[in-house]
Amino acid sequence: MSLVLTTDTVPDQEKVAYWNDAVSRALVPVTVAPRDGRRFDGRIASDCLGYLRVSRMEADAGRVSRTPALIERSPEALVAVGLLVSGSATFIQDGRRAEMAGGDLVFYDTARPFSFTYPERFATHVFQLPRHVLGVADGDIRRVTGTAIGTAHGLGAVLRPFLATLADAAPSYPAAVGHRLAGHVVDLFATLITDQALRDPDDGRDHLVLSVRDHIDRKLGDPSLSPESIARAHHISVRYLHRLFEGEGITVSRLIQQRRLEACGRELARRGRVTPTVSAVARRWGFVNPAHFSRAFRAAYGVSPREWRTLHLERGEDEQPAGPTLT
């Protein structure tokens, strides 16, 4: 049975809060901010076909964001595929920016921060499934996330009508049929990911970028982590390292700071029997200068580290400050 949530009968002053809860229930926890405070309406319907969740969403202009704090609430690793049916969108993840038009596909990972900005009313279909069922290397998945995939030719042209029909007919499929269809979707998504990875002319470059990103994530707590130390670990020059990241939408130094701030934000928001000091959290994630950490955190999150902690521990997580905005 479909989960259908709509603002049609919700009072205007309650629509934004209702819509935030509706989208978070149907997809994953996110924040939705309507554009320019205009009148807002939205509708989302969601069905489960085995382990595949299919959602059909239509709403007015706005921004949908998934922050590190929201990821902390629902850490399950899901791969999502969005098919933009109408309107346009700008999608950002991992420093990559994808400009989408009607008919385009985009892969994204719900375990990492992302945002969609819709400048006008739009309609989209969203397909979510556990990352592990794809049977595709994490590196290949990461290489295609945040990239708009056209559907005018190739595998995209095969997928678009299939996914559109699947979304429209999802409520009508018996459970046994739904399970089989989920398996077919997994095969198609895995094939598209592999195809996109193999057709990339910068295959070696992208693998090196992924290696650098993984190295950064493993070494976040090391205060000596820097472009120089990363270059040494990968046997390349600092100049070449910076060249690798020219197409990533973020510099190496800013990526290090972004990932450290995300880690600090998650730890500061976490409830526990023992509450570490803000300075201890900062040191644990590689910040050696408390004043620099406080300035960087406020610039990224819009509040101080202590205010961020208070918002989470005293008021809960229904209203989240924006996540890091370094890119």
Features:
327 residues; alpha+beta; Jelly Rolls; Arc Repressor Mutant, subunit A; 2 domains; seven-stranded antiparallel sheet; five-stranded antiparallel sheet; 12 helices; globular
Oligomeric state of the chains present here: single chain
Q: Which parts are unreliable, with pLDDT below 50 for 5 consecutive residues or more?
A: 317-323
Global mean pLDDT: 88
Q: How far from one another are the termini?
A: 40 Å
Q: Approximately how much beta-strand content do the residues carry? A: 15-25%
Number of helices: 12
Q: How many β strands by DSSP?
A: 12
Report on this structure.
The structure is a single chain. This protein has 327 residues and is of the alpha+beta class. It is 44% helix and 22% strand. A seven-stranded antiparallel β-sheet has the order 1-3-4-11-6-9-12, with helices on both faces. It has a five-stranded antiparallel β-sheet with strand order 2-5-10-7-8. β3 (42-49) and β4 form a beta hairpin. α3 (138-144) crosses α5 and α7 (227-233) crosses α8. Mean pLDDT is 88; it is low at 317-323. Keywords: DNA-binding, Transcription, Transcription regulation.
